[in-house]
Specification:
Layout: H1 36-39, H2 47-61, H3 77-87, E1 99-104, H4 107-128, H5 131-137, H6 148-151, E2 154-161, E3 163-164, E4 172-173, H7 177-195, E5 198-202, H8 209-214, E6 220-229, H9 239-242, H10 247-250
Antiparallel strand pairs: 1-2, 2-6, 3-4, 5-6
Helix pairs in contact: 3-7
The structure holds flavin mononucleotide (FMN).
The site of flavin mononucleotide (FMN) has 10 residues, from strand 5.
Length: about 250
Amino acid sequence: MRHDKSAAGNDKNDETGFGGVLNGWCSMSQEKFTPLSELGDYIDRADDEMDRRAAAFFDEIKRRHTVRDFTADPVPQSVIENCIAAAGRAPSGANHQPWHFCLVGDATVKSKIRAAAEEEERAFYEGRAGDEWLEALDPLGTDANKEFLEIAPWLIAVFAQRRGGEEAGMDKKNYYINESVGIACGFLLAALHHAGLATLTHTPKPMSFLNENLGRPATEKPFLLIVTGKPVASAEIPHHSLIKKPLKDILTVF
Ligand SMILES: Cc1cc2nc3c(=O)[nH]c(=O)nc-3n(C[C@H](O)[C@H](O)[C@H](O)COP(=O)(O)O)c2cc1C
């Protein structure tokens, strides 16, 4: 049964995003709901406007490419922070938001991460990966050299938390962790692209060195290392990565 609702008002600057609607949340035992109409967040759009917006989004996201050659041009921290804030609005199992983002711009930390990543990558490319995986990677032209980890202005290490809760400091079991963190990373990549940045989703295997380098607890699993900045003018995209399945091959309508 739904009880009570407070007059929320959507104060977009409010840290929680709830404009104070959560005051008293913890002290009350009954459920509380806020009408979506009071939040003012849903905008009812006509079909033709939805069509235009969906097409415009597709057009924009089509221009996202994984880039492996970045300039050292600085990018304001505020840009990345807003993109991470957007990632933090992803849906998550039981709303536990089982993610933590470490934003690395410090040259010393970046070079430690590069050294550790290259050590793992050397072992990976020298045999740990196995022939089938190396064959799959061959068209990408990647190798153990990860210069971009020092050159790009920002690295974002994303951690998946086994335990947590809807507020910092909680210690409850988390649910659908990979799904939730994967969706948050999708939001993050889309937000960075939308802001005008190139990205590389990097996954040296294993990535446990990130816990050590960034002081994250063992209950957190490194999920992705996202490199972001601007592409060099001569950046190249592998033809292999330009092959995208057409809609007819990824969609079945019933
Ligand atoms: C989970 C995941 C891990 C990836 N790991 C790496 C990586 O370690 N190194 C790399 O160069 N690219 C990595 N990629 C990038 C893929 O190679 C790239 O997304 C794919 O070739 C398609 O290209 P596109 O992103 O330009 O569409 C990864 C992508 C994903 C989603």
